[in-house]
Amino acid sequence: MPIQSLGVGRSVLLALVALPGTLSATSQEIGTLTLLKDTPLHVIRGVSILEGVEGIRLRAGDIVETGPAPTAQAQLEFTSGAIVELGPSTQMLVASAGAAAGEMVLATGWLKGETTSGAYRYSSPLAGVTSKGGNILLHATADTAEVFVERGTASVSGGSAPIVSAPGKIFFSRKGAKPLAAADRPSGEFIGAMPISFRDVLPPRLPAFTGKKTPAPKTDHDVTYADVERWLTLSATRRQFAARFRARLQDPAFRQAIEAHQSSLPEWGPYLHPETNQTGPATAAKPSSPPGE
After folding, report:
1. pTM, 2 dp
2. Residue 292's pLDDT is what?
3. Is the pLDDT confidence value at 16 over 60?
4. Contact 156, 149 (CB under 8 A)
5. Strands 163-164 and 128-140
6. Residues 163, 180: contact at Cβ < 8 Å?
């Protein structure tokens, strides 16, 4: 049900947990970018930044980023039937997406997820939500997280025991280290800042791409430290991404930036100075499958 009708029951299944230590770094296509409006879209795949265009296929481990225009909009559709829409100034990791389950990690920005089956988890640094068939809105900034269970049921967590949504508990917010707070409707500030495109049910567009030639993604450049700094410091992804981006240490500027921040990036030690580490960088703090490598 669209956001305008805030009544109706909701409920169900999750708690924010850290990103699994081993994500599938497969080249298998799991979804498609079906709509791109008023924004350049960057896709970080492996150690490269690609230029996103409608029709590009998505893979587990892809990081998608929208531009800052207020009307920026990107719609991702997965083989499971799940639809995820991104608003402006958004950075999201496609961790996994399958028929039974999926996970998206939102570093910052706006996300709307719609599913009809499967337990889909949407995580952010301060709060996370899992829904099994429903519509979820998630907004994340550096020090806040807001979750709106628009339709269906969900379990929301962040700084406290998970809370299952129910009538009277459909909007959740958290600021800094404070515990999660529940309310019976979204705040006025949330509705005022929410992307306009999030107000309605997301129409599927995937059939329009069936049988069409898949556009070849164009590489813009290899990632710089500034491109991935946010992901290198998130607790849920820092070890996986140290392993994924270690090859960029061959670039002097990237290496210099990592060394300058080494006090806050201890997992990079084995890659920066393998000669001082007995086990070597191939085994220290390295997951079996770095995401998106």
Report:
1. 0.84
2. 58
3. no
4. yes
5. unpaired
6. yes
Whether the CB-CB separation of 95 and 60 falls below 8 Å is answered with: yes
User: What is the average pLDDT across 146-173?
Assistant: 94
- Give the burial class of 106: count Cβ atoms within 10 A of its Cβ; 0-12 exposed, 13-18 middle, 19 or more buried: buried
The amino acid that residue 247 corresponds to is A
Q: What is the total residue count of the chain?
A: 293
Q: What is the pLDDT confidence band of residue 276, given thresholds at 50, 70 and 90?
A: confident
Round to whole Å and give the CA distance between 205 and 195. 19
Residue type, 159: G
Contact between residue 139 and residue 129 where contact means Cβ atoms under 8 Å apart: no
Q: pLDDT tens for residues 78-132?
A: 988 899 999 999 999 999 998 889 999 999 999 999 998 889 999 999 999 999 8
Query: What is the arithmetic mean of pLDDT over 12-31?
Result: 48
Structure letter (DSSP) for residue 174: E
Q: How far apart are CA 128 and CA 106, in angstroms?
A: 9
Q: Please provide residue 71's backbone torsions phi and psi, each rounded to the nearest 5 degrees.
A: -100, 10
Task: Look up residue 179 and give its two tokens.
Answer: 């515990």
User: What is the pLDDT at residue 280?
Assistant: 47
What is the arithmetic mean of pLDDT over 124-141?
94
The whole-number pLDDT of residue 193 equals 96
Amino acid code (one letter) for 281: P
- The residue type of 239 is R
Q: In which residue are the tokens 């550096």 written?
A: 142
Other beta carbons within 10 Å of 33: 25
Three-class secondary structure of residue 143 per DSSP: coil
* Contact residues for 133 (Cβ-Cβ < 8 A; gap 6+): 115, 116, 117, 118, 152
Amino acid at 122: Y
| Strands (E) located in the chain | 29-37, 41-45, 48-52, 57-59, 63-65, 73-78, 83-86, 91-97, 101-123, 128-140, 144-157, 163-164, 171-175, 181-183, 218-222
